[in-house]
């Protein structure tokens, strides 16, 4: 299939499915704050839940570049549904596909693709948000004790990827576990956006866990999963941006004030032009990050963070403009822009806030300070600290650099 024409075909097919099965639920799910299963089942039936998972495990074997089209189109209609997908597919299924044993892949992947099982990704704790290395959940003899919160899909999940401490060391002391039996309750307070999503507080009291990857690889696994997830977030933001621009153009063509269409005022045209420029820039950056992930490019991690950062912030600007451009109509829920305006704030926060994405990109550009490294190697630690390794020292700021990932096989084309 030739790149470009195939993408448009895929986009048209997904848009049709989303308009029939997701969009009609979006406003109601938001207003009633209820998690809706029906749109997800429709997406699963159409093969859109496990899109990037290899066919042998029940997926469609799509590339990341194709998958972002799905996230974008679903995100255009409903951020809660797109959020579900980014977790189910990007953070859970792709993570098991990358790191699981044959038995784990054979057991979980077909179920996750068909929606016979729901997955969640449990990293955040009350005292470990941006700083993943502050995780306090512990695993002793494969039994987990601790808590996680803000976990998307948490109350409906059949399996959770849980990150827990198996050693003292900051990074190498973390391991990943598949956990099926744990206590969960819905987050108590009302959310600003993603009101149709399921966000849970999980508790583990000697919950049995099965190791995913090797002991001590938890940090590496968490970061590699976030690369998949962040791509889904960036593409979802492009979808929100696109939806806001569409609403604004429609409104600007129809609404009349001072005897003409508001779209004929140059100030309004300027807003539309800014939104359109940033939308295309976002879409291109997101696609480039996906291509780099597909190619196993060394810059994939940096581009993914750049896409997450730029696309979410550009979409937040677009949603802010859209609310004002629609006047009072932008302020109530007959039009979707007020929902997009609330939802986009979540995309700027989860899977690493904009601050964290800036840190990742900035540090990647500057690189390691070689001089500091030389000095560090030559320096003798102060007497009181000699017994401790560097790895146990707290970092001045959170370290979000993932270690190198194992080489991936080339993506399977449909
Ligand atoms: C809708 C939603 C869904 C979520 N789903 C999940 C999920 O499925 N699984 C999961 O594990 N988590 C999930 N989360 C949690 C989310 O990933 C965290 O909220 C996020 O990583 C930020 O952590 P925090 O809230 O503890 O903020 P903090 O880490 O306390 O940050 C507070 C502020 O300080 C800034 N900050 C922190 N460190 C630095 C630094 N070094 N330099 C500059 N600024 C810094 C942050 O950018 C932020 O502005 C979800 C959150 C939301 C809102």
Your description of this structure?
The chain has 414 residues and is an alpha+beta fold. Helix content is 51%, strand content 13%. The chain has 12 helices and 9 strands. The longest helix is centred in the middle third of the chain and has 37 residues, at 218-254. The protein is globular. The chain binds flavin-adenine dinucleotide. Flavin-adenine dinucleotide (FAD) binds next to strand 1, strand 3, helix 10 and helix 11. Residues 87, 120-124, 129-130, 150-152, 194, 199, 346, 349-353, 355-356, 359, 397-398 line the site of flavin-adenine dinucleotide.
Describe this structure in a few short sentences:
The chain is α+β, with helices and mostly antiparallel strands and 414 residues long. The protein has three domains: 5-114, Butyryl-Coa Dehydrogenase, subunit A, domain 1, CATH 1.10.540.10; 119-218, Butyryl-CoA Dehydrogenase, subunit A, domain 2 (Beta Barrel); 220-366, Up-down Bundle (Butyryl-CoA Dehydrogenase, subunit A, domain 3). It has twelve helices and nine strands.
The average pLDDT score comes to: 91
| Backbone structural class | alpha+beta
Instruction: Write the CATH homologous superfamily of the largest domain.
Output: Butyryl-CoA Dehydrogenase, subunit A, domain 3
What is the radius of gyration? 22 Å
The stretches of 5 or more residues where confidence is low (pLDDT under 50) are 380-401
Order of secondary-structure elements: HHHHHHEEEEEEEHEEHHHHH
What would you say the CATH architecture of the largest domain is? Answer: Up-down Bundle
Helix content: 40-55%
User: What's the CATH topology label of the largest domain?
Assistant: Butyryl-CoA Dehydrogenase, subunit A, domain 3
């Amino acid at each position: 299939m030739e790149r470009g024409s195939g993408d448009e075909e895929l986009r048209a097919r997904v848009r049709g499915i989303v308009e029939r099965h997701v969009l009609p639920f979006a406003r109601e799910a938001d207003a009633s704050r209820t998690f809706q299963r029906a749109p997800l089942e429709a997406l699963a039936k159409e093969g859109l839940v496990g899109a990037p998972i290899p066919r042998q495990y029940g997926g469609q074997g799509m590339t990341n570049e194709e998958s972002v089209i799905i996230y974008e189109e679903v995100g255009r209609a409903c951020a809660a549904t797109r959020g579900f997908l980014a977790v189910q597919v990007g953070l859970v299924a792709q993570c098991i596909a990358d790191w699981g044993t044959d038995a784990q892949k054979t057991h979980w992947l077909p179920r996750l693709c068909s929606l016979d099982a729901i997955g969640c990704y449990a990293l955040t704790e009350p005292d470990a948000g941006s700083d993943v290395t502050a995780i306090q959940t512990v695993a002793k003899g494969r039994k987990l004790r601790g808590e996680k919160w803000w976990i998307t899909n948490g109350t409906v999940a059949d399996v959770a990827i849980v990150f827990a401490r198996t050693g003292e060391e900051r990074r190498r002391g973390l391991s990943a576990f598949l956990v099926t039996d744990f206590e969960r309750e819905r987050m108590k307070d009302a959310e600003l956006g993603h009101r149709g999503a399921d966000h849970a507080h999980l508790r583990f009291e000697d919950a049995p866990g099965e190791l995913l990857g090797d002991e001590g690889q938890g940090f590496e696994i968490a970061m590699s999963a976030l690369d998949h997830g962040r791509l889904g977030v960036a593409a979802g933001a492009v979808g929100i941006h696109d939806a806001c621009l569409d609403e604004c153009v429609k409104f600007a063509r129809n609404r009349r004030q001072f005897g003409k269409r508001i779209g004929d005022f140059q100030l309004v045209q300027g807003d539309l032009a800014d939104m359109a420029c940033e939308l295309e820039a976002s879409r291109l950056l997101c696609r480039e990050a996906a291509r780099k992930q597909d190619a196993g490019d060394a810059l994939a991690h940096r581009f993914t963070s750049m896409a997450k950062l730029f696309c979410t912030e550009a979409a937040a600007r677009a949603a802010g403009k859209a609310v004002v451009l629609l006047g009072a109509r932008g302020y109530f829920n007959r039009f979707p822009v007020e929902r997009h305006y609330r939802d986009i704030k979540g995309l700027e926060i989860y899977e690493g806030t904009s601050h964290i994405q800036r840190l990742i990109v900035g540090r990647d550009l500057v690189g390691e300070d070689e001089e500091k490294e030389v000095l560090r190697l030559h320096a003798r630690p102060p007497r009181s600290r000699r017994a401790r390794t560097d790895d146990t020292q707290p970092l001045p700021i959170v370290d979000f650099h993932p270690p190198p990932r194992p080489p991936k096989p080339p993506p399977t084309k449909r």
